[in-house]
Amino acid sequence: MLSSSSPQADAAHDAAGDYVVKGAWFTLVVMIIMALVANVDRQMLVLAAAPLSQSLGLSDARIGIIQGLPFAIFMIVAVYPIAWAADRFDRRWVFGICVLIWSLGTAACGLARNFEELFAAAVLIAAGEASLVPVGIAFVPELFKGRKRLLANSIFYLFGFMGLAGGLIVSGAVMALADLVHADLPTSMQALESWRLAFFLVAAPTPIFLFLIAVSRLGHRSEPVAVNGQQPPAKNHLWPYVRRHRRTVLTLFVGLSFYTLGVGGYFFFLPVATSRMFGTTPAQNGTLMGTATAIGLVLGVVIGTFINRRMTARIGPVASIRLLWMAMLAGMPIFLIFPFVSASWQVFALFGGIMFLVTAAGCALPGIMQDMAPADLRGRVAAIGNIGNGIVNGIAPGMVGWISPYLGTDPRNLIVAMGIFAIPSWIIAAMLFRMAERPFERTRLAAMAEAAADPISIESEQT
């Protein structure tokens, strides 16, 4: 493993201004790769939904449950213990174990023979992927200081979301590759459906990923040190912090949950709806959806960052919260247009518009999370938000799959069912984000005052 620089040395560099710990950029690249890998593993369940449901005889409701409920359960059960461990132990071990777990779950999807086995495999994927948010939020401030932290956050957010697009494109390519090589497989393996082979292919490079994590700087921590004989400050405790800032935590994190609910159904069921309405293949859906998502994400980060900076110069850091609720309101007309599409490209173009709004509003979220929590609570505070999103990600596909049969047999009704959840969800999210503006500003100012009053905390660098 790479050796860690001393806290005293880090503190000296912090005082001088912006600073990047040795190996920080390599670690950022590793985490971006792992975000892509996680998206590939999960999007296989999305793109393989149509052939998988036919092979295993699964209804829309059961497909929705597979794509959502395991992730909701383990966002509740697994994410906080993982965040607790990541805040205390070497993150390389914690994250490496989680990557191994989700890779085993991906391979197990290829072996599933029924709903129960597929559900258990999805649970393993969810348990491992629960580590991404708390580790991703916590490692950047430890390795990047000052304005470098803002740059690293933007890069990680952009490429983390690009992982959604890349995950779809790579998953679609893997599905196409599995179809292509299926006939050339040994006779004993030709009995495997192509979708099963695809799951095995995406799980195969796991040893390489574990090696990259092992040589990264995820384990580095900038611990508070004694200065002029003073003792380092005591560790913060999560629940006293949550009680002090409960209005910020509730309005912001519940708002984020409804924000996620608005797009959850679309992300999981659009490939299924497009296959039924226009006869597109999983590979075609992956390419179209991935391309639309990538375009929306890049434009969202560029334009959203520009708007956020202009608004921040005028009204201060609360601009990040305000941009969230403005984006929610702007998305309403797009949801209303979805049921009237007449071609597959129109479906994914509209989805690209939604992803543009999601990214434009959300590119400041990592900074919001980091600014509202002390250094030793960042992973766990991010985990609280991730629990809410996990619940919603479980609810959205299952409810869309449950309600769509009641709307009739027209394949277009699957898209109508998505809108039934999306529109009220984003209205509620907009209201909660509007309510979060003042509480967030008070929490941010309290954190700044605490840092300014603490002369021996390394985390008091200007960010």
The H-level CATH homologous superfamily, spelled out, is MFS general substrate transporter like domains
The CATH topology comes to Growth Hormone, Chain: A
User: Which oligomeric form is depicted?
Assistant: single chain
Radius of gyration: 22 Å
The number of domains is 1
**SSE series:** HEHHHHHHHEHHHHHHHHHHHH
Sequence stretches where pLDDT stays below 50 over 5 or more residues: 1-16, 224-234, 454-463
Instruction: Tell me, briefly, the overall form.
Output: globular
Helix content: over 70%
Describe the structure.
77% of the residues lie in helices and 1% in strands. With 463 residues, it is an all-alpha fold. It has one domain: MFS general substrate transporter like domains (Growth Hormone, Chain: A). Strands 1-2 form a two-stranded antiparallel sheet. The two termini are 29 Å apart.
How would you describe this structure in keywords?
Growth Hormone, Chain: A; two-stranded antiparallel ribbon; disordered C terminus; disordered N terminus; mainly alpha; 463 residues; 20 helices; globular; single chain
